[in-house]
Amino acid sequence: MYKKFVTLLLKLLVKIYKNLEATIVELKHQLYFMDFEERDSDVFVVTYLKSGTTWMQVILYNLLTDGNMDFEHIYDVSPWPKNQSIKNEPVSKLNSMPSPRIMKSHDDYSFFSKEIKGKIIYVYRDGKDVAVSLYHHHKNYRDPNITFDENFEEFFTKEKAVMNWFKFNKEWLENKNNLPVLYVTYEQLKNNFEETVARIAHYLNINLTEGILNRIREHGSFEFMKEHESKFGLIPPVKENKVYNEFIRKGKTGEGNEYMNDNQIAFFKKKYIEYIKPFEHKL
Ligand code: PPS
């Protein structure tokens, strides 16, 4: 009885600590953005986790600059403001970056104000494949013992989770405030790369020449990004004993079906109809 009580208490304390930590991170992020100077030329790559963010950053970087890949890490040329706020970096660093700025964001819809100066590209990926990619990510960087089912439970079934996949994507697809958003899917990039890049270029008013397209094809290929993984993955040491060669992992579509059991697939289908189906035409 005593042991049970202590375990319960410990679990509760961990939960309180985690919530508090998340709230502090969020607050820091909000404060950081208060001094952020917006520009019309800003491009935000917004995604749920593991949906092709880095791939889109590389595509945009090659579309909007001369595509010099000599940088140490993609965040040097396409920052992730939330990460900078967590690391207590001054917002002046972001404010003094040359235009156009390509910024990564995993922020939920409500984070963005009703009117923004720049443009947003939202990358959506099949949730079943996100579940697999996210599971590997958390196994590599958070908890080596986590199971696929535990991870699925946390990010897909828990309605109140901050990063519930269904809720996060629904709000972005719904786009209540009519923010300037171009929707691109991971699957479109995989299956129809050139047409999708042309659509992105059109949205950003860029003349897509054969030279630029070739550069994007080369630097945005899975093979190139895998070969130069240290430029894109988590920056060691995030924590000791973590895996650093699986950020650019498989880059496949359809893996979700191999990992999910019948109940999870049924659950996914049901929730999809409720949350995503009404906005499917936007994808
Ligand atoms: S993160 O941590 O949320 O920013 O991750 P994110 O960049 O959004 O997603 C990582 C997944 O994208 C895959 N990826 C690619 N797939 C195809 N082609 C290219 N060029 C490419 N670059 C990254 C990466 O491998 C992760 O997916 P999985 O399924 O784990 O392989």
Structure, described:
The structure is a single chain. The protein has 14 helices and four strands. By secondary structure, the protein is of the alpha/beta class. α2 runs antiparallel to α11 (210-219) and α6 (127-141) crosses α7 (148-157). It starts with a helix and ends in an 8-residue tail after the last helix. The relative contact order is 0.14. The chain binds 3'-phosphate-adenosine-5'-phosphate sulfate. 3'-phosphate-adenosine-5'-phosphate sulfate (PPS) binds next to α2, α6 and α12.
Low-confidence stretches: none
Radius of gyration: 19 Å
Helix percent reads: 40-55%
Q: Count the strands?
A: 4
Span from first to last CA?
A: 53 Å
Largest sheet: 4 strands, parallel
What is the succession of H and E elements? HEHHHHEEHHHEHHHHHH
In which order are the strands of the major sheet placed? 2-1-3-4
Structural class: alpha/beta
What bound compounds does this protein have?
3'-phosphate-adenosine-5'-phosphate sulfate
Number of helices: 14
How confident is the prediction overall: mean pLDDT? Answer: 91
The fraction of residues in strands falls at 5-15%
Shape: globular
